[in-house]
Write a structure and sequence with these properties.
Elements: H1 3-12, H2 16-19, H3 22-35, E1 63-69, E2 74-78, H4 79-88, E3 92-102, E4 105-116, H5 118-125, H6 130-140, H7 147-158, E5 169-174, E6 179-185, H8 187-194, E7 207-208, E8 211-212, E9 216-218
Parallel strand pairs: 1-3
Antiparallel strand pairs: 2-6, 3-4, 4-9, 5-6, 7-8
Helix pairs in contact: 1-3, 4-5, 4-6, 6-7
């Protein structure tokens, strides 16, 4: 089955409420099928999307695929879990696919796989400590605080040192359904600090490890909620 068809089938299999996230699921499946022998995760909450033991061809280290709109920050996931990666001194791969929205399709315009060393990852977080993160995380998850107050306190903390001095961005997510502390890296910082030899430019025929990415797949533009969901 052609890769473009696989991407279309994946997108069509989602309900409309989940369809706006199909690009990430489709990209991750393409990465797993193409480079990691069709590895299937035991759980979607596991530490690594692709654990080291499933990586037999690209260094034997864990990997996380990331699908992101071109020019936008790359979501790295739970902040405390990501900080623990530093303490584990684990090298890992970030396999990023960048897309542009064209009508009801998302077109892949760039792809890059980068190996992240413990030293490089630590520099992204400096001068944040785990204690700093735990303090902010506690505010975000304190259900005794009304949402507006928790959001205001979280914003105040993240706007000051040490968070304001770090390259990594912490992103409190607070609404009626969630209270989470996520993190991300800006598009430009991703290339500057983690992929300095790769140009951050759109490509006519993007590839990852020399393999052409699918051109596009059906996925309507994301519909943003009017109310704020993050600080």
């Amino acid at each position: 089955m052609k890769l473009a068809v696989i991407f279309s089938l994946i997108a069509l299999s989602f309900a409309h409420s989940a369809e706006e996230q199909a690009h990430g699921v489709a990209f991750e499946q393409w990465v797993r099928d193409t480079f990691f022998d069709g590895y299937k995760p035991e759980s979607y909450t596991q530490k690594w999307d692709i654990p080291a033991e499933a990586n037999k061809k690209h260094g034997g280290i864990p990997a996380n695929p990331k699908a992101t709109k071109f020019g936008m920050p790359i979501d790295m996931g739970d902040a405390l879990r990501q900080f623990d990666v530093i303490e584990s001194e684990q090298r890992f791969l970030i396999i990023s696919g960048f897309w542009d929205q064209e009508g009801d399709k998302k077109k892949w315009v760039h792809g890059v796989a980068v190996e992240v060393t413990p030293e490089a990852y630590q520099k992204l977080w400096e001068p944040i400590t785990r204690a700093d993160l735990e303090k902010l995380d506690a505010v975000v998850k304190d259900k005794s605080l009304p949402l507006d107050e928790a959001r205001a306190q979280a914003q105040k903390i993240k706007s000051r040192a040490p968070f304001a001095k770090a390259i990594i961005q912490v992103n409190p997510k607070l609404d009626n359904k969630q209270r989470r502390l996520q993190c991300s890296i800006r598009f430009g910082d991703f290339f500057h600090f983690l992929a300095p030899t790769v140009e951050a430019l759109r490509q006519d025929k993007p590839t990852i490890w020399g393999v052409a990415m699918p051109e596009a797949f059906q996925s309507p533009p994301r519909r943003r909620k009017k109310s704020a969901t993050s600080s």
